[in-house]
Amino acid sequence: MKSFIWMKIFKRFQLIGTFVIRPSVLLLCLVSGIQIAGAKTEFTPVDRWYEVYLDGGKVGYFQDKMEKDGDVIKSWNEFVMQIKRAGQSIEITVVQETKEKISGELIEFSSETKMAGIPMLKKGRVEGKELVVYEKQFIAGKETRYSFDPEGGMSWGLRKQVLENGFQEAGKTYNLKVYSPDMGMKAPVQAVIVCWGEKTIQIGKEKIKAYEVDMELKSPFGSMITKSWFDENCIAIKTVMNMGGMKISIIEVPKKKAKKMDEEAHELLLSSVVSLNAAVPKSEKNIFIMEAIKGKWSGKLFEDPSQKIEKINDNSIRVIVDLGQRQEKGDKEIDLKPFLSANVYLDSDDLLIQKLAKKAKGNAKTPKAIAHKLTQFVFRYMSNKNYEVGFATASEVARKKAGDCTEHSVLLAALGRALGIPSRVVTGLVYADEFENQKDVLVYHMWTQFYMDDQWVNLDSALGLVKCTADRITFTVDSLEEDTIASVLPLMELINNLKVTVQSVE
Fold first, then answer.
1. 277 secondary structure, DSSP code
2. What is the DSSP code string of 23-66?
3. Ramachandran category for residue 38: left, alpha or beta (phi over 0 → left; psi -120 to 50 → alpha)
């Protein structure tokens, strides 16, 4: 099981700067820099600096700026994080800019993330009743048009609404519509604001009175909650959020203190394994009991005929993985278009992807035979198996031949689409009989599914498996049509907070 070393940290977790910290920064950006002037909003320029902590260790800083230019409000914020992954230093930077009307309506935005030198760009503009969004990674890019909801706010628009609705009164609750590049720009997500009134908090050695506010971002996959404390002028002092066993804190400090980084980068200590009570049989059916160690069960796992979810109590569920129970022809019709189309990550229209797909296919005729050929090809083709790569496009993977389970699954999915086979990527847990001196564990993993003979079939190119058993639990499936954190919310909620038991199958 040496190959598990190459995927020991599931790739979406390694993007903690974008997938975990940025949503917590969203509330901080949302309501800082507003002052009360009767029942109206009075714009106040903002230039604030914050330290960012992960599990008590400083990992970066955050700057938030906002200024008025005529009738346009310009917002700019930058997040910088330095961490280590298995001893390797990684820097992540996120820069987001918005332009909005004084009324709060969005004009345009841009959001650029760089991780380990890999740039990811998302920008958009409002054209009439449409929001035009452009996404690009490396040289690959695409433009998509969505219906624009003028009630959806980003920076100034959200701040304006928070002030108008209030934030100081305990018990006050209201809903807002939020446009966030991290949650997808297809439509605004709902944000629930809950006000807890004035509280006393500890900032360093000083006790400060501040107004406590929660924001819950809701998506079809789950929710994300941040907690912030504000002064009487609605300036954020501190923002925190918890993801399983990880605590992220963002605290206002002077610029000099914010930019001073620790000499030694913080080691990103994410649990890569979940211990089991027994070995997982290599069969078509297995049953797992999944339990939240702390608090109630909040993760929403994918469900289809091959994986059924049963609630046991408030903190545990039963997962029945039965590969013999697949969707039958004539059941609910599946829209396969998103799983056939080229996109930013699965750029199956790239010339090299097309060339490799034909080469890998060889003389295979049937979808099953082609799937086997492609899976084995990717396993052999990826000559540099490591977890140093960011979240790369399929064409970039094809050129570098490097990566872990994420890159394997993305490349395989793109090759399938290049040959007209619907494909998607899967995130979840897979069984290992031994991993890093631990026996009988589940490891966070990513693999591929092809739609063949009216069924979604598991293929694992990172492990070279053309036939998978019921030794894995699916968390999410994704066409990768849009770059968003929403689909990984169920996973983040379970980090360091998961107990799994194998239940015998008669």
1. S
2. HHHHHHHHHTTEEEETTEEEE--EEEEEEEEETTEEEEEEEEEE
3. left
* pLDDT (mean) for 472-482: 86
Classify strands 384-385 and 316-322 as parallel, antiparallel or unpaired.
unpaired
Name the domain count of the chain. Answer: 2
Helix, strand, coil proportions of the chain in percent (round to 5)?
20, 50, 35
* Contact (CB, 8 A) for 412 and 450: no
Q: Are residues 129 and 27 in the same domain?
A: yes
| pLDDT for the residue numbered 412 | 97
Both 111 and 258 in one domain: the answer is: yes
Looking at the DSSP assignment, which residues form a beta bridge with residue 307?
Answer: 304, 321
| Tens-place pLDDT, residues 287-312 | 999 998 887 887 778 999 999 999 99
Please tell me the predicted confidence (pLDDT) of residue 23: 42
How far apart are alpha carbons 410 and 344 in whole angstroms? Answer: 11
Are 233 and 289 in a shared domain? Answer: no
Asked if 177 and 154 count as a contact pair (C-beta separation under 8 A), the reply is: no
Give me the percent of the chain exceeding a pLDDT of 90.
Answer: 41
Instruction: Kindly state whether residue 88 falls inside one of the protein's structural domains.
Output: yes
Band (pLDDT 50/70/90 cuts) for residue 155 is confident
pLDDT tens digits for 53-102?
877 788 889 899 999 999 999 999 998 887 765 556 677 888 999 999 99
Tell me whether residue 2 is in a domain.
no
The answer to whether residue 3 is domain-embedded is no
Rounded to 5 degrees, what are φ and ψ at 99? -125, 130
Last residue of a domain, one of 223, 238, 267: 267
394 and 276 in one domain?
yes
Residues 413 and 280 in one domain: yes
What's residue 53's pLDDT?
A: 86
Assess whether 106 and 246 both reside in one domain.
yes
Query: Domain check: are 125 and 160 in the same one?
Result: yes
Inter-residue contact 196 to 214 (CB < 8 Å): yes
CA separation, residue 239 to residues 28, 274, 286, 410 (Å): 7, 30, 42, 35
Cα dihedral 318, 321, 322, 327, rounded to 10, equals 100
Q: Using the predicted structure, report yes or no on whether residue 458 has a pLDDT greater than 90.
A: yes
Two structure tokens written together for 284: 């078509």
